[in-house]
Amino acid sequence: MIEKHNGIVRTSPAQVSVGQPSFERRMVAQQQLSVVELWQVLAKRKWFILGFALFTLGLAAAYTFLKTPKYEGVARLQIDPGRSLSLGLDEGDKSVSTDIDSRIKTEVTIIQSDTVAVRVINSLQLFAKKAFAGKDTVTGQIKEFDQLTASQRGRLLDRFSGDLTVKVIPNTQVVEIRFRSSDPLLATDAANSIIDEYMQRNFHTRVDGTTQLSQWLSKQMEEIRASTSAAQQQFAEFQKDHNLLGTDENDNVVTDRLKQLNEELTQAEADRIVKEGRYRMARSGNPVLVDSAAPNTTLQVLRTQQAELQSQLAQLSAQFGGGYPKIRELRSQLADINTAIDKEGTNIGTRLSNEYNAAATAENMIRKEFDSQKEAAYKLNENVAQYANLKHQIESGQQLYDALQLRVKEANVTSGLNSSYISVVDRAQLPDKPIEPRKSLYLSLGLGAGIFCGVLLGLVVDSFDDSLRTVTDVETVTGLPELGSVPHLATLGSRRRNSLKNGRMGHANLLGLPGFDLTSIPVLKTNCPVAEAFRSLGSVVLLSCVDNPPKVLVVTSAMAGEGKSTVSCNLAAALAQRGRKVLLVDADLRSAAIQEQLGMRPGRDTVFATGATQYSRYQPIQALPNLHVVPTGFRPTDPHEVLDTKRVKDLMAAWSAEYDHVIIDTPPVLLFADVLVMSARADAVIFVTRSGKSRRGAALRAREVLTRAGANLLGFVLNGTKQREYYYQYPAEYKKLMADNASRRH
Question: For residues 508 and 599, is the Cβ–Cβ distance under 8 A?
């Protein structure tokens, strides 16, 4: 809702609440720091950052110049992992090329081991040198590291490990050994001694390994030879027991005899079959078969004679008949021939039968012997596995023994060639300058760390600082427009006290008050940034509504000490300089700050309490006759009840009708409720904040309270700012021009 009071447009609380969301959105948006805001924070905390940086630089300098210088001895080794474990018993050591990094890392670990450290400590007697042992330095009868206590040994080993640095130069087989000490000679000797002790340890390790390996191989070869001899003896006895004369399980007497009998049996069986066939052909009686089975010349002659006699007999019988004498002779001859043929056939059959029987008998005999020999072969096969096992055992033992004997002979040559896989590239030289402390680096790091940490701490401190220092801070929190920024200015009351203390009193004012230099009000000065700030504030107030500028203005703040009374006095003077008739009213009934600042005596009565039409009005500044002041008078019992009355309202209306502007100085908003009554009746309210003193929470709370009371907040004035942040030094010509203009105004 918009209201119009005395020609002034006022915004009701309802209207303000409508715009609240945009105000909250602006606050959220302002929570993100921009580059400019970050720079402003750093500029605000510059002394803190600078102090912290100098403090850190001082610590770094103290550490740098008080730290004991450290010297470093540097030595370098080349380690060839391709030969590092070769004893001549491998096939070219094919695994070396695939794991070179791990082998070199293993050697680096050995260099860093306690074994090498103890050797170096003993060889150089480091436990007796203060540059190394420090407070653990021992003297007297102790000559060996092992004679120290366990705690001393542990501390010395830890110190040795801390001073030693071993690393592999990238993409090479070179190992760099660095040892640091406050004694340059000790650092050099320690680095060289580490190389010597490491190489000596490696040599002894290889010798011991070779000796152990040789002993083990000799023992293994003796065991192999003994087991091979036993197997040979067992194999010979097995051959003897089982009638095995050859060196092959398939080449022996039993199998050879079996093969021979098999051949003989085959031949006998074939002979028996042939003779059996001839015998059976002979028994058939068929002359043709008999002749084919057993060709016989005698039988053939007899059969020829038989055929001839039968032919003659047939011819004579056909010619002469059966009674012919020749026929009887031929028949007698034929009978003799037949008898001879039968006898010869019987002889042939008997002979073939005998041959057949002999062949069958021979076959049976050979078969029996073959079966017997076959049984012996079957028994022999049962021992073939044992025979083969014994034979394989002998052969493998002989092969293994021969191979090991050959490899051992080769190892005597190969291990000698590969015995040295470590070579010294550089021995440590005496350093000419310390490696630590690196003064320029440490000081640079100290300064850089101090600045960095100082910036961080500055940001942290600033995040906890809820004070309002800049216009942006106040705008972000309150959401009000800026009316003006006033540089830091000591209050007039403080100046008066200083003047009284120093005995310097000015001329009296028109009322005959104690002497006070009223011309010390900044707005009355020329070529003064503070005066220009208040004149600019007056212009902004007049231009807030061009046709009807606000008449009744309430000046207040959230808390005490934020400069509202100073702003009230100077704003009233600035408006009076413009020819306006101005009334300055001190409505702070508890403090009476206007009286103190202007050096006035308190009034005899309180115009707010009496409501009289005739009351004291003062003209404190002779140069501004149109500026009147109404002091607060005596302090009433309840100021709030005094101000919250109709007579005060009528009094304010009378002032508004008589004067062009009425400036009312009120108590702080959050401390007293007096201002709420006056703010609601005024045309506008000017909210005063002080840079570095006003708090965010208090300012936001004060704005909310004034808004709910129905006050028309015109804007805020930031008081106590640093001049160089908002103003610049005027050129000489401009200063002269300002002085001339000021003199013409007066």
Answer: no
